[in-house]
Amino acid sequence: MRIRSTTEEDLGVFVDTVHAAFGRHPETPVDGGGLWWSALEMDRGVLALTADGRPVGTAAAYSFELTLPGEILAPVAGVSAVGVLPSHRRRGVLSGMMRHQLAEFRERGEFLAVLLASEATIYGRYGYGPATSTARLTVPRREAALAAPRARDAAGSPRAGGEDGPNDGPNHGVDDGPVEVLPREECGDLLEEIYDRYRRAQPGALSRPHRWWARRAGRPPLSPAPRYLALHRDGAGVPDGYASYSVGEDRTLTVDETIAGDDAAHTALTRFLLGHDLVDRIVFKHLPTDHPLRWQLADFRAGQVSEDTDWLWVRLLDVPRALTARGWFTDGALVLDVTDPFLGERGRHLLTVRDGRADCVPTDRAPDLSLDVRDLGSLYLGGTAPGTLVRAGHVRAHHADAAALADALFRPERRPHCLHWF
Known about the structure:
422 residues, Aminopeptidase, acyltransferase, Acetyltransferase_Eis, NAcTrfase_Eis
């Protein structure tokens, strides 16, 4: 078997091979792209070939920015289109491609890689750990009333908005700013701008490079699939949020994603969606697991959570560089003994945090925690507490205070979440 990097001339072979690996047939392109592979960067792809030159495996990578805790933007390789023909599985093809790809990332100077795992049991052995999660929330239209906020302002008065009674619509007594409905094709530039502002402030979010929007690659609202956009404007008339949605023949309103600059804009869009006429249920496909919407409902049980699952997986390629790149919110020091079984590496690192920044150097001091690089990937964005993995038996705490110390140090200012599909 031979593994090599791809060029633009390999696009057709690459696309045919990855589709064959999953038993599918390539779709017909639309004008200007419109397919998930329209944004492939062929100088970052990998092909696995048999001795006689037949392609049997693929792996791709995209150039993204990942928002780290502290609103720090870091370059990251987004791994995708990984597949091996059914006739050549369990022969080391995938491991060979993963090893080749990680070496290329390091040659490019990249210290982080991310992916969305098709199966949760595959990528841990290559050093990736689940770092963010997402969930689906379904709300019956007849139970979609929102409760009046109970928080009071500085003068002791209730916040604006009357209480929703059992017969009141979701927009009762609330002025959340204007929402207008537009066809997707009329607001592409606005969506790109709003998403870019959002992802720069949201830990765990990935950039959507302009080529993705221009080539209509990925899933709605990027793809050409017919969608309506609910666009929210702030008090000055500036667009600051949107929701991409469609209504099916079964009277289900499905929300692909809601992007908003603040909670007020998000609530305004939510009220609009929950108040849509001639639907029986509203499905929010992609919410953070700690999203406040269930608490905003007058009937807490009205929101049914499903498909609570992992989303973004993270892989560290340079532990000291990765740990010093992100922001921190608690001062302290921790010794981490990190093993990387797939690459055959091990290092002991003294992580010292002061005033939001970290220093990470080799050390001979006794470790506080011993862990696999995949577990460090899960902890990296703050979506998983070290103590959770200690209790699960994956991370070893060397003394009684180690887990609590690590929990305090890794705790994020804001829980990470990723919406982008790639």
